[in-house]
TrEMBL record:
NCBIfam families in alphabetical order: mucoidy inhibitor MuiA family protein
Organism: Coprinopsis marcescibilis
High-level lineage: Eukaryota, Fungi, Dikarya, Basidiomycota, Agaricomycotina
InterPro entries per the UniProt record, alphabetical: CHP02231, DUF4139, DUF4140
Protein name per Swiss-Prot or TrEMBL: DUF4139 domain-containing protein
Annotated DUF4139 domain residues: 199-662
Residue ranges occupied by any DUF4140 domain in the UniProt entry: 17-113
């Protein structure tokens, strides 16, 4: 007969816990077990109900041999504070209630004794008791009442303490998340009596962690120090049903997936795109000729079956004079028109009739071009200059683009903008597919940690990392006439900073909160340290409008000149080395309007990312792109001045631009 050993999990410590990013955790428990010769059955009860039965591992048996391991989860009870008879809080509540009942009975006996003594005293009369006996009885009555009062008072104190403890345990039961109904039965065979350290390892669900940070920055004589400290912390939440008390805690970025396998490649086959399939819109007839030609030939056959009646001025289907038919005769020696960014739609003549096209520039003047049928139109320069182009030329086979015959209704939307520059591919596909190999990072929390199973986030410290930073003074006076301190921090540690929230503490006071993405070693991230009250900013904007009447045969135009003046006064006792003033000029979405940038000087001609040096050390540049849409400051009108301001100095900045629009009314931003 096997020797049965029953162990209660809550009475044994948890050796270590590793929390993964996939709502899983690995728990390692250790049990000291005295084995006898022969077969021993070790029953471990009170484990988490979230245990994964397939993840249970047993080790540390020494010379003993493992025969069987069975993991089960018992059904919960419907009544009571807890769902398992081995739940510690529930067992303690029941024992406290039993003790409470005993005390209440003792108190009732003492109270009954006091009542009987009082009733006996009231029954005595003078004719039945001698005076000497009465004195002795009164002494005895007083002493006995005092004993009863002391005993009842003590019992009342014990009852109050028990009631508080019961309420505390009941609160624990109510706030505890999860059940502890897991059970593992281990069958071990030993050659003799021996004590082993049985190690039980298993995976549980409903446990997770996320990184969080605190950036601490300080000042010296009012000037922010370049040295900052990042407090790397972790928020852990678990509701597994078992408390992790005084255990070694490890945090891992491994997903902890149930299975890992090398992915297998499947055959990839190419096939012609069916007519009217999911890829609707433009088809490049020559760059993918094999796939499109059957559809074009079928369309030509349908056209040939219909009566051919030439029409004057129809260059698209008038193919009898050229000896060609279908689409090729229509577009043979032509080029597709170009639409200007902020100008009018260029026009091109048919059948060799010259037409003039105008294209507006982004911040400049218009340009005029001319040429033969379907001549290319060239718009003005991006920022103030203009270019002219004329003449025609043959279009390469890869540049010819036509709409699908059955989608003429969508022709206007499909041909919104075409150019004869780079060939348009027949099927749009992403140019780059990137698969990055994940790198696992493991953090060991110093010391022992206690994380109860209450579903509440508990914060533990991972590390304190000193970093060097660069402080910039940034202002956006158009929106808020204040200067903000921006801290650019470089991750010079060996840690990879995971995505998480950052609370900024500046001079031991909360300054702001932000969120960072994944920051690898050597990368930078930015945080705002709050505003600078010792730097004063003023902002003013004026406008002047001039209306031009073009007469009976010309359009009326309205030109408005906007002037913006910004001043920054450094009242610090130290120089501001990196002052950034951000501003924006309006963009005209309607192609009838035009914006011409006058000041800052030469900014209209600058390219994206180019920094222009102006007198007195002033620099100006288009702002960097924000977001993943690829739009930079040049396309959105956002730019910034960069300057160094000496202590006590005041700098003045000025911007000016013209807005030229048709009509008698002003256009609003």
């Amino acid at each position: 007969m096997a020797n049965v050993i029953t162990l209660k999990a809550s009475e044994h410590t948890i050796k270590s816990v590793t929390v993964f990013k996939s709502s899983k955790a690995e728990v390692v428990r250790s049990f000291k077990v005295d084995l006898t010769e022969g077969q021993n059955k070790v029953e471990i009860k009170g484990l988490s109900s979230c245990i994964d039965p397939l993840s249970v591992r047993v080790s540390g048996l020494g010379e003993a041999r493992l025969y069987d391991v069975v993991c089960t989860v018992e059904q919960s009870q419907q009544y009571g504070f807890a769902g398992h008879d081995l739940d510690d809080a529930s067992e303690l509540i029941r024992s406290l209630n039993v003790k409470k009942g005993e005390i209440e009975k003792r108190k009732a006996i003492r109270e009954c004794e006091a009542r009987l003594l009082l009733q006996y005293a009231e029954s005595l009369k003078g004719e039945h008791v001698a005076p000497a006996q009465m004195i002795d009885f009164m002494q005895t009555f007083t002493i006995q009442n005092q004993k009863n009062l002391q005993e009842v008072s003590k019992l009342d104190g014990d009852l109050d303490a028990l009631n508080r403890e019961i309420a505390k345990q009941e609160s624990k039961v109510k706030t505890k998340k999860g059940l502890a109904q897991g059970r593992v039965d281990v069958v071990v065979v030993a050659d003799g009596e021996v004590q082993v350290d049985l190690v039980l390892t298993y995976i549980v669900n409903r446990a997770q962690w996320e990184p969080t940070y605190e950036l601490h920055a300080k000042t010296e004589n009012g000037k922010p120090l370049s040295l900052v400290k990042l407090h790397y912390r972790a928020r852990i939440i678990q509701s597994t049903g078992e408390d992790w008390t005084n255990t070694s805690l490890t945090l891992s970025t491994v997903s902890g997936a149930d299975s890992r396998a090398i992915p297998s490649l499947k055959p990839v086959k190419l096939s012609p795109q069916p007519f009217g399939g999911p890829k609707k819109g433009l088809i490049n007839m020559f760059s993918n000729a094999n796939a499109v030609r059957p559809n074009v030939m079928q369309f030509q056959q349908q056209r040939q079956q219909q009566p051919q009646q030439p029409q004057a001025g129809n260059a698209f289907w008038n193919s009898q004079t050229t000896g060609t038919s279908g689409f090729a005769g229509a577009f043979g020696p032509t080029q597709a028109p170009v639409r200007g960014l902020f100008g009018s739609q260029p026009a091109a003549g048919f059948a060799g009739q010259p037409q003039a096209a105008t294209g507006g520039s982004l911040f400049g003047t218009q340009a005029t071009v001319g040429g033969g049928g379907f001549q290319a139109a060239t718009g003005g320069g991006l920022f103030g200059t203009s270019q002219a182009a004329s003449g025609g030329g043959d279009v390469s086979a890869g540049d010819l683009v036509v709409p699908l015959p059955d989608e003429e209704e969508e022709e206007e939307e499909q041909f919104e903008e075409l150019s004869t520059g780079e060939p348009i591919p027949a099927i749009a596909e992403p140019t780059t597919i990137v698969n990055e190999t994940p790198v696992a990072v493991t953090f060991s929390v110093h010391g022992e940690s206690t994380i109860p199973s209450d579903g509440i986030a508990h914060q533990v410290s991972v590390a304190i990392l000193p970093f060097e930073s660069t402080i910039s003074y940034i202002t956006v006076p158009k929106i808020d006439a204040r200067v903000y301190l921006q801290c650019r921090v470089k991750n010079s540690s060996d840690y990879r900073l995971l995505p998480g929230s950052v609370r900024v503490i500046f001079d031991d006071s909360f300054a702001s909160s932000t969120r960072i993405n994944e920051i690898n070693t050597g990368d930078d991230f930015e945080c705002t340290l709050g505003d600078d009250p010792s730097t004063k900013v003023t902002y003013s904007r004026t406008l002047k409008s001039i209306k031009s009447n073009g007469g009976n045969f010309a359009e009326t135009t309205n030109t408005t000149t906007y002037t913006t003046k910004i001043s920054v006064h450094n009242k610090h006792t130290f120089d501001i080395d990196d002052l950034v003033v951000r501003h924006v000029i309006p963009m005209c979405e309607d192609k009838r309007g035009q914006v011409i940038l006058r000041k800052p000087d030469e900014l209209a001609k600058a390219k994206e990312g180019q920094i222009l040096s102006l007198p007195d050390g002033l620099k100006v540049t288009w702002s960097k792109s924000e977001g993943s849409d690829g739009k930079g400051g040049e396309k959105e009108g956002r730019y910034e001045w960069i300057w160094k301001v000496a202590s006590g100095a005041k700098v003045n900045l000025e911007a000016e631009w013209d807005v030229k629009v048709p009509g008698e009314y002003m256009w609003a931003e």
